[in-house]
């Protein structure tokens, strides 16, 4: 495959946040019954509250970690706070949802001020139930390092959406 | 923070650039590295390198010229001495006695005849190029803007032009001083003040940076634009037993 058309690569999520990986678990994220598809645009008002997250898998004894980051904080052209951690949920049993896990870092509503930000959900498989320590602060979170420290390995699923400030006028012509 | 042994900044940046290169090497064969910021698309890598090379040669030129100026001039007497020297040159060579002579005339003069004053010799010393006239003109023209348009225009009233007489000479020797001189004199437009901040040679740099940032923004826009045809495909992919290998 000379040119990769996978949305995660095209949107540079693979590159800026993640390394190439193999999807193996389904990940569905819904904000008020609006499903998040790669690259779709959502407004801050639509993502104020935490979404409903459903994950696949088979065995209830397998646990997953969900990370939500903004790699374009504070601005896509100057992402000095890359990545900004918005949500961290651990010990999610397979086939269930985020509400069944441990909310290590509570959900923070996206509030982009400058530019169009990508918000990425990443799902990792845990080796077992494990204690994950919340970082001291949300900014400059590094998903790759985080996965390494907790032996999470490669992601098993990821999805992202775009979001700009409520009155923003950038993005595709509508 | 959770980073184990090393500080976040440099190492994670290096890792990022490594992984970026891995990804981008599959897309293109070019793999030049940049020093300032992780550029995502290979074409902008090359542009950044070229921009940096151009900026470096420009830096040398600016340094030479401003260094030459430091040897010979005191900041306070600069304008007066310049003006007097300029007048002496113009009188001696009977070339252009009008007070509104343009910079290009001044540049042309010392290379046609022997320089009578120390001041003119600075021009020769400071230019690092072998051929006299075009390089200094192009060097100076990079910073050209309202300031230089001012010099060319002979319609200006007497007072500003008398101030500007001194500026061509000081422009050649020191690029910051003429604008400082202009700053101190009343009655000049405000845009000259802005020029003083850019005239130390970094305006070319800033332009390059702006261009590169624009290109990155355009690349992000294109990336976003390409998403829509694939949304439907991605929906199907993410269910249960489907496997998709991402490069």
Automatic annotation (TrEMBL), chain A:
<protein>
    <recommendedName>
        <fullName>Flowering locus T</fullName>
    </recommendedName>
</protein>
<dbReference type="InterPro" id="IPR036610">
    <property type="entry name" value="PEBP-like_sf"/>
</dbReference>
<dbReference type="InterPro" id="IPR035810">
    <property type="entry name" value="PEBP_euk"/>
</dbReference>
<dbReference type="InterPro" id="IPR001858">
    <property type="entry name" value="Phosphatidylethanolamine-bd_CS"/>
</dbReference>
<dbReference type="Pfam" id="PF01161">
    <property type="entry name" value="PBP"/>
</dbReference>
<comment type="similarity">
    <text>Belongs to the phosphatidylethanolamine-binding protein family.</text>
</comment>
<dbReference type="InterPro" id="IPR008914">
    <property type="entry name" value="PEBP"/>
</dbReference>
TrEMBL record, chain B:
<dbReference type="InterPro" id="IPR043452">
    <property type="entry name" value="BZIP46-like"/>
</dbReference>
<dbReference type="InterPro" id="IPR004827">
    <property type="entry name" value="bZIP"/>
</dbReference>
<feature type="compositionally biased region" description="Low complexity">
    <location>
        <begin position="159"/>
        <end position="170"/>
    </location>
</feature>
<feature type="region of interest" description="Disordered">
    <location>
        <begin position="144"/>
        <end position="170"/>
    </location>
</feature>
<feature type="compositionally biased region" description="Polar residues">
    <location>
        <begin position="1"/>
        <end position="14"/>
    </location>
</feature>
<dbReference type="GO" id="GO:0045893">
    <property type="term" value="P:positive regulation of DNA-templated transcription"/>
</dbReference>
<feature type="region of interest" description="Disordered">
    <location>
        <begin position="190"/>
        <end position="223"/>
    </location>
</feature>
<keyword id="KW-0238">DNA-binding</keyword>
<feature type="domain" description="BZIP">
    <location>
        <begin position="209"/>
        <end position="224"/>
    </location>
</feature>
<keyword id="KW-0539">Nucleus</keyword>
<dbReference type="GO" id="GO:0005634">
    <property type="term" value="C:nucleus"/>
</dbReference>
<protein>
    <submittedName>
        <fullName>cAMP-RESPONSE ELEMENT BINDING PROTEIN-RELATED</fullName>
    </submittedName>
</protein>
<feature type="compositionally biased region" description="Low complexity">
    <location>
        <begin position="24"/>
        <end position="44"/>
    </location>
</feature>
<feature type="region of interest" description="Disordered">
    <location>
        <begin position="1"/>
        <end position="45"/>
    </location>
</feature>
<dbReference type="GO" id="GO:0003700">
    <property type="term" value="F:DNA-binding transcription factor activity"/>
</dbReference>
<feature type="compositionally biased region" description="Basic and acidic residues">
    <location>
        <begin position="213"/>
        <end position="223"/>
    </location>
</feature>
<dbReference type="GO" id="GO:0003677">
    <property type="term" value="F:DNA binding"/>
</dbReference>
<dbReference type="InterPro" id="IPR046347">
    <property type="entry name" value="bZIP_sf"/>
</dbReference>
<dbReference type="Pfam" id="PF00170">
    <property type="entry name" value="bZIP_1"/>
</dbReference>
């Amino acid at each position: 495959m000379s040119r990769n058309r996978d949305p995660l690569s095209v949107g540079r999520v693979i590159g800026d946040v993640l390394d190439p990986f193999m999807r193996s678990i389904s990940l569905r994220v819904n904000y008020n019954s609006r499903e998040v598809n790669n690259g779709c645009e959502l407004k801050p008002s639509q993502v104020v509250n935490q979404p409903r997250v459903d994950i696949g898998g088979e065995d209830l004894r397998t646990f997953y970690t969900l990370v939500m980051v903004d790699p374009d904080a504070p601005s896509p052209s100057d992402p000095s706070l890359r990545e900004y951690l918005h949500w961290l949920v651990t010990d999610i049993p397979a086939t269930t949802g985020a509400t069944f896990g441990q909310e290590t870092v509570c959900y923070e509503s996206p509030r982009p001020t400058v530019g169009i930000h990508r918000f990425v959900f990443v799902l990792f498989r845990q080796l077992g139930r494990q204690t994950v320590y919340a970082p001291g602060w949300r900014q400059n979170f590094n998903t790759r390092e985080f996965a390494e420290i907790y032996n999470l390995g490669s992601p098993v699923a990821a999805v992202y959406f775009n979001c700009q400030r409520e009155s923003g006028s950038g993005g595709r012509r509508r | 923070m959770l980073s184990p042994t090393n500080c976040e900044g440099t190492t994670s940046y290096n890792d990022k650039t490594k992984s970026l290169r891995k990804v981008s090497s599959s897309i293109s064969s070019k793999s030049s590295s940049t020093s300032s910021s992780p550029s995502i698309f290979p074409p902008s890598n090359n542009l950044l390198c070229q921009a940096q090379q151009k900026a470096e040669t420009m830096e040398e030129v600016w340094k030479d010229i401003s260094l030459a100026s430091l040897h010979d001039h005191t900041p306070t007497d600069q304008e007066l001495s310049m003006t007097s020297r300029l007048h002496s040159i113009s009188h001696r060579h009977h070339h252009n006695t009008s007070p509104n002579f343009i910079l290009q005339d001044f540049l042309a003069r010392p290379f046609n005849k022997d320089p009578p004053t120390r001041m003119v010799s600075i021009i020769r010393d400071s230019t690092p190029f072998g051929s006299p006239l075009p390089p200094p003109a192009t060097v100076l023209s990079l910073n050209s803007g309202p300031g230089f348009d001012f010099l060319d225009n002979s319609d200006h009233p007497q007072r500003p032009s008398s101030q500007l007489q001194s500026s061509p000479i000081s422009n050649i020797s020191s690029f910051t001083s003429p604008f400082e001189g202009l700053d101190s004199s009343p009655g000049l437009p405000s845009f000259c003040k802005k020029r003083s901040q850019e005239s130390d040679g970094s305006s070319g740099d800033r332009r390059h940076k702006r261009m590169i940032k624009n290109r990155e923004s355009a690349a992000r826009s294109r990336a976003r634009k390409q998403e829509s045809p694939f949304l439907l495909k991605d929906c199907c992919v993410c269910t249960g037993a489907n496997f998709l290998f991402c490069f």
